[in-house]
Design goal:
The complex is a heterodimer. Chain A is mainly β. Chain A contains no helices and twelve strands. In chain A, the strands form three sheets. Chain A has a six-stranded mixed beta sheet with strand order 2-12-10-5-6-7, with no helix packed on it. A three-stranded antiparallel beta sheet of chain A has the order 3-9-8, with no helix packed on it. In chain A, strand 8 and strand 9 (about 75-80) form a beta hairpin. Chain A starts with a strand and ends with a strand. Chain B is an all-beta fold. In chain B, the strands form two sheets. In chain B, strands 2, 4, 5, 9, 10 and 11 form a six-stranded mixed beta sheet that branches. A five-stranded antiparallel beta sheet of chain B has the order 1-3-8-7-6, with no helix packed on it. In chain B, a hairpin with a 5-residue loop joins strand 7 and strand 8 (about 70-75). Chain B is globular and about 40 Å long. The interface of A and B includes residues 43 and 45 of A.
Chain lengths: ~110, ~110
């Protein structure tokens, strides 16, 4: 069964901490995406990557960075977590256009 | 920037009634995707529409892409309790991986 796996389902961090969210896909997909989902706002694209070491900013990249050292892994980094980064974070991957296959999500709470 | 408006925000129907959600854009779209997210779950890809005027069916679900490629709809015939969830459209203009998600329509089906 093909999968996008996110390392944590729930995460609680303190303001100012550096936070790593990990995502791994087993489908050899070229494209990987990070979204955040907030009530009433739908899904908003933070970053996407179309190849190893390649990345493009999405609509809300401020306060985030990403790393893609291997094809199967795409990490989202919050350099200094803030309370307004409390959200559901969704990773996705695909061969072609669009996100397609989503992981189960990480609910991040920043206190 | 590009926006995709999705209506209605909520819809409650009696089991057996039909349901339709609409996505509208002020700009011409390259293609549009539809996703379903069950309560507590992650978005699951349903379909992609690419051609002007395209109509696709999946059992009780009918998807349409407008002739001008500025709007799309998802219609469910004779809803069932298993149809409960939030339906999102996600659209892109040509040559971009940046899919913009609509804010979703939350469907509740009353037995």
């Amino acid at each position: 069964d093909v999968k996008v796996t996110q390392s944590s389902r729930y995460l609680v961090k303190r303001t100012g901490e550096k936070v790593f969210l990990e995502c791994v896909q087993d489908m050899d997909h070229e494209n990987m995406f990070w979204y955040r989902q907030d009530p009433g706002l739908g899904l908003r694209l933070i970053y996407f990557s179309y190849d190893v070491k390649m990345k493009e900013k999405g609509d809300i990249p401020e306060g985030y960075s990403v790393s893609r050292e291997k094809k199967e892994r795409f990490s989202l980094i919050l350099e200094s977590a803030s309370t307004n980064q409390t959200s559901m974070y969704l990773c996705a991957s695909s061969f072609g256009s669009g996100p397609r296959i989503f992981g189960s999500g990480t609910q991040l709470s920043v206190l | 920037g590009q926006q995709v408006m999705q209506i209605p925000q909520y819809q409650h129907v009696q089991e057996g009634e039909d349901f339709t959600t609409y996505c509208n854009s002020s700009t011409t779209l390259s293609n549009i995707q539809w996703y379903k997210q069950r309560p507590g779950g992650h978005p699951v890809f349903l379909i992609q529409l690419v051609k002007s005027g395209e109509v696709k069916k999946q059992k009780r679900l009918t998807f349409q892409f407008g002739e001008a490629k500025k709007n799309s709809s998802l219609h469910i015939t004779a809803t069932q309790t298993t149809d409960v969830g939030t339906y999102f459209c996600a659209a892109t203009t040509s040559g971009t991986y940046k899919y913009i998600f609509g804010t979703g329509t939350r469907l509740k089906v009353l037995a």
